[in-house]
Design a protein that fits this description.
By secondary structure, this protein is an all-alpha fold. It is built from eleven helices and two strands; from the N terminus they run H-H-H-H-H-H-H-E-E-H-H-H-H. A hairpin with a 3-residue loop joins strand 1 and strand 2.
Length: 280
C-alpha cells in the first residue's frame, strides 16, 4: 500500500505538470510516449517476440498521435498505408514466429490505443475549433474528461469494498461489482460537479459556453465508457493470464492498467463534443 500511494502521488504530480503544458508540444509528446509504452505492454502481453515487429510498432505508436494532431503538416495517410503493408509483409516473411494473432494485436496496440490517446490533444485544441470555447474552458474540458476516466475506477473500488455483493463480470474482473460500478458513477458526478463549481467560481474569466446541464448529463455517460474501457483491458489480461501489463507504475501496474479507461472515455468525449459543436 505504501508503494502504491507513493507511486500514485508521483503519477499525480507528473499528470498535473503535463496538464500545465496543455497548449504546448510537450503535452502532445507526452501522449506519444504513453502510446509507445502502451504498445510495448500489449505486444509483450500477447507474447510478440519478433524484434522488428515490436520496434516498428512502438515507433509508429509514438508518431501516430503527433501525426493526428499535426495532420495538416504530416502525410499521415501515406504513413499508415506504408506501415500496414510493412506489417503484413513482415508477417509473411517471418511466418514462423509472427502469427495472425500477433499481427492483429500489434495493429490494435499501435493504431487503436494511440488514436485514442491523440483525442486528448484534439480536445485541447477545441478552443481553435469552436469559437464559443475559450482556453480556460478547454483546460476544464481536459480535467473533466480525464476525471471521468480515472476517478470512476477509484470510486468504484471504494464502493465495491464497502457495499459490493453482486459481481458484474465474474470472469473478466472478479472483484468488480454492480454496487461498485454504481458508486463509481455517482462519485464521479459529485467530484466533477465540485470541479465545475470551483472552476466557474475562481478560474473562469467569463461564463462557460457549455451549459451546466450538458456537463452533468455527459458525466455518467463518460463514466460508463470508463468502466467498459477497464473491462476491455481486463479481457486481454484474462486471455493471456497476466495480472498487470507491466510494473512501470509500482503498485498500479503499467500504462494500460492505469489508463485503460482513458482509451474509451476520451474518444467518446471527443465525438460528443464534436457533434455538439456541429449542432449548435
Amino acid at each position: 500500500m505504501k508503494t502504491r500511494v507513493i507511486s500514485g502521488v508521483v503519477l499525480a504530480v507528473i499528470l498535473i505538470s503535463v496538464w500545465t503544458q496543455i497548449f504546448t508540444p510537450i503535452f502532445d509528446i507526452f501522449f506519444g510516449i504513453l502510446s509507445a509504452a502502451a504498445c510495448y505492454e500489449i505486444t509483450k502481453a500477447v507474447k510478440v517476440k519478433n524484434i522488428e515487429l515490436k520496434i516498428v510498432s512502438i515507433l509508429f505508436a509514438f508518431v501516430l498521435p503527433l501525426g493526428i494532431v499535426y495532420g495538416a503538416k504530416f502525410p499521415l495517410g501515406i504513413l499508415c498505408i506504408i506501415y500496414v503493408m510493412f506489417l503484413v509483409v513482415l508477417t509473411v516473411i517471418h511466418n514462423q514466429d509472427i502469427t495472425f494473432e500477433h499481427l492483429a494485436a500489434t495493429i490494435y496496440a499501435s493504431f487503436v490505443v494511440p488514436a485514442a490517446f491523440s483525442t486528448i490533444s484534439l480536445i485541447a485544441d477545441f478552443y481553435k475549433t469552436f469559437d464559443f470555447i475559450d482556453k480556460r474552458e478547454t483546460v476544464f474540458l481536459i480535467l473533466y474528461s480525464v476525471s471521468c476516466a480515472l476517478f470512476t475506477d477509484v470510486f468504484a473500488q471504494l464502493s465495491g469494498m464497502a457495499f459490493g455483493k453482486h459481481k458484474m463480470t465474474p470472469v473478466l474482473s472478479p472483484k468488480k461489482t454492480w454496487e461498485g460500478a454504481f458508486g463509481g458513477v455517482i462519485g464521479v458526478i459529485l467530484i466533477n460537479s465540485l470541479f465545475l463549481f470551483i472552476f466557474m467560481k475562481f478560474f473562469a474569466v467569463k461564463a462557460f459556453a457549455l451549459p451546466i446541464w450538458f456537463y452533468i448529463l455527459i458525466c455518467p455517460i463518460l463514466s460508463v465508457c470508463g468502466i467498459f474501457g477497464d473491462l476491455a483491458a481486463s479481457m486481454i489480461k484474462r486471455n493471456y493470464e497476466i495480472k498487470d501489463y507491466s510494473n512501470l507504475i509500482p503498485g498500479h501496474g503499467g500504462i494500460m492498467d492505469r489508463f485503460d479507461s482513458v482509451i474509451f472515455v476520451m474518444p467518446a468525449f471527443y465525438v460528443i463534443m464534436t457533434i455538439y459543436g456541429m449542432v449548435v
